[in-house]
Amino acid sequence: MAQRAYLSRLTAAFMAGLMLVAAPIPTASAAAPNWSGLDARAFAGRVPAPGGLIRTVPLNPELSVAGAARAYRILYSTTDQHNSPAVSTGVVFVPPGEAPPGGWPVIAWAHGTVGLGDDCTPSAQPRSARDNEYLSHWLSEGYVVVGSDYTGLGTPGLMSYLNSVATAHAIIDSVIAAHHMNLPLSPKWALVGQSQGGAAAVASARWANEFSKGSG
């Protein structure tokens, strides 16, 4: 089954988070990244059709959140700001317990501004107290949480800050990729995000149907 055609049949319930329009606030330098055994900064392998799952590893426990029973770091294919094949990384947090009939619904979480360098890659850094509480809430509600790092953070190329089309590709393709994991996932999914991620969630809602169609 074509990867992108699969997502075209997902029932998307779009819940876009509050979008804060403000200049990025400088933050302290990120700690040395922990790649959980999946360092894709120099990835030069074959890039499958967008939404392809290239590799999955267990996420280092110190990078997970309290509400997750299991956590993974993934490498998947997407499309960059030049409409060219690219790769991105991300995380998949799985709630405790058994999946309900039909599988766990998915929350595609769009992270806020973290910086432009590879050391800032969210999946390679511990979560903030706010993100830990926020994401654990969705897990407690029975959602699998999929969080894209966005293309260029921890992967080749530059992170295209506030490029809504490229970010939408990365988020939508992360959901497609998660459906290729050995997890019982529902076709129902939703979008949430804050700050930069608020804009990313709105853009992903705008482009979801178009970007999830076609062969791959």
> In what range is the share of β-strand residues?
15-25%
Low-confidence stretches: 1-6, 8-28
Q: What's the number of helices?
A: 4
- Overall shape: it is globular
- What is the residue-mean pLDDT, rounded to a whole number? 86
- The separation of the N and C termini measures 9 Å
Question: Structural class of the secondary elements?
Answer: alpha/beta
Order of neighbouring strands in the sheet with most strands: 1-7-5-6-4-3-2
Helices, strands, pairings?
Layout: H1 3-7, E1 11-14, E2 53-58, E3 70-79, E4 85-94, E5 104-110, H2 129-140, E6 144-148, H3 164-178, E7 185-193, H4 196-211
Parallel strand pairs: 1-7, 5-6, 5-7
Antiparallel strand pairs: 2-3, 3-4, 4-6
Helix pairs in contact: 3-4
Describe the protein's architecture and organization.
With 216 residues, the chain is α/β, with parallel strands linked by helices. Helices cover 22% and strands 24% of the residues. The protein is built from four helices and seven strands, in the order H-E-E-E-E-E-H-E-H-E-H. It has helices spanning 3-7, 129-140, 164-178, 196-211; strands spanning 11-14, 53-58, 70-79, 85-94, 104-110, 144-148, 185-193. Strands 1-7-5-6-4-3-2 form a seven-stranded mixed sheet. A hairpin with a 5-residue loop joins strand 3 and strand 4 (85-94). Helix 3 packs across helix 4. The longest helix has 16 residues, at 196-211. The radius of gyration is 15 Å and the shape is globular.
